[in-house]
Predict the structure.
Amino acid sequence: MNIVVLVKQVPDSGAERQLTADGTIDRENATRVINEMDEYAIEEGLRLADTTGGEVTLVTMGPDEATESIRKALSMGAHKALHVLDPALHGSCALATSRVLAQALQTINPDIIICGAESTDGRVGALPAMLAERLNITALTGARKLTVEDGSATIERQLDDGYQVVQGSLPAIVSVWDTINEPRYPSFRGIMQAKSKPVTTLSLADLNVDPSTVGSAGASTEVVQHAPRPPRQAGVKIVDEGDAGDKLVEFLLAEKLV
Amino acid sequence: MSIAVSGEREELRKLVAEFARNEIAPVIGDFYERGEFPYDIIAGLGQLGVFGLPFPEEVGGSGGDYFTFCLALEEIAKVDSSVAITIEASVGLGAMPIYRFGTPEQRERWLPKLLAGEMLGGFGLTEPGGGSDAGSTQTRAVVDGDEWVINGSKAFITNSGTRITGFVTVSAVTGTKPDGRKEISTIIVPAGTPGMTVGKEYSKVGWRASDTHELAFDDCRVPLSNLLGERGRGYAQFLEMLDEGRIAISAVATGLAQGCVDESVKYSHERQAFGRPIGANQALAFQIADMEMRAHTARLGYYDAAARLLAGEPFKKQAAIAKLYSSDVAVQNARAATQVHGGYGFMNEFPVARAWRDCKIFEIGEGTNEVQRMLIARELGLPQ
């Protein structure tokens, strides 16, 4: 089975994150990690490869530094990688990203594409559906469980108050939440083996994508304004002088919490 | 001498640091408090390939080197040195003697599981009556038919009583040499061999998440083929490995010392006194700067000894210096770090309190610091 996992390098959501002057994320000075949700997608892809005897190809779009994340995912056990690298991609919106990735994915012709349900930087979460549209394949989004058999994929689609069982035929794109598995750590042997695994780099020209349709130039959305999160306000302290219960209820009512 | 931490070494170091931060740090305090062995953590580190680092792939190793192994130990010890010592002992005292001196059958039987971290090994050298003084060995092994019959006892044996302990290699007197001295050999005793009694877990001051027992041998019988290495060369062979073991111990001690710095830096940002974070007080800032200086210098010591080892150069003196210095530094940094933490430094739930309890053993284990000074003096050619 030809399995593709989409991987995005993001600034560590646990560390300090900054925007640059043009409203894009400062990736250069950030602590860079694999998007957390993508680690679950990698794990799911590796498990699927183990049970079906398939191969996992990583696909990423990002600057030079993204090779760090590719290396890590390869050392977890993925077989090879495709890196779309082009300076014109800087500032790409989700729509443009999906255009580029769709072109890249067509060179691989996967049976199944697995990706994280959202990235911790942009948090748009629309890419899986966009790719399904562009590639005209099944979209199974927000999975907490995935089963693949007889040319179809079945997921448990995670909802706030339960789950739906959704089934569709392959080829399909499946986006996953962090409830789906427990990602493995790479091993030292994996790190050593990753060095000799093939990583193909493709530019926009290689993919026949017009640079003016992507990046900041071709962005369909624009960050107009941004501001840091305001510091937390001090809370209300209720001292019990026999009426703490009443005060508590008053507070909850005033905040419309009950 | 210099040695580079780059490429796959750096990737491994980061990987182990991530594992230590995510999988060890949140839970190890509870294991430590209960004096419980952290099997899942050991299994996880096994899957990372840490136990196999200094061994080639053809015997089941990860294909790294001894220095990379030391880097991993330092990262683990930054969080908890009792986990680090479990690995150090299983690799350095359990697996390494078998890799170096074992027969093909012994290697095949023990190494794959040891190097995967699925089995632990120990080495029984120290006895209730003496440690580094080999001449005082009382445990005896005599040949009876096709078996060794072992009698005696061993003290403070790391990894000897876990449920994944595979064997303990025991040093024993097997005869008298032509010059009248004791002939000492080493024999592999598989866990569960009748006649070997594993005493109850010691109540240790520190390293409480590691496994340490006394062992008693009462007509304990193992096949003659369990002799490890040459008969009568057991102690000499063991000494060869103690030298590199000191580099690993130094890496663990350095990790403890660096962990003290890291915790102190964090705490000095969080803790407020007199309207500002305590780290803004020069009295504390200077203490922490000194701690960093000591940890850094200790690291250079073991890096240098490891570089010599990898280059095939003599490293006996450098290993002794690294062990001696880093253990001193571990004690000094643990002392300073608990002081930085004030009253909380005396509370078990704070990592620096664990460091304070753990640091002392570094001055004692793997050759006391007095023995290290003796070795250094000997290497300097001082009159004997």
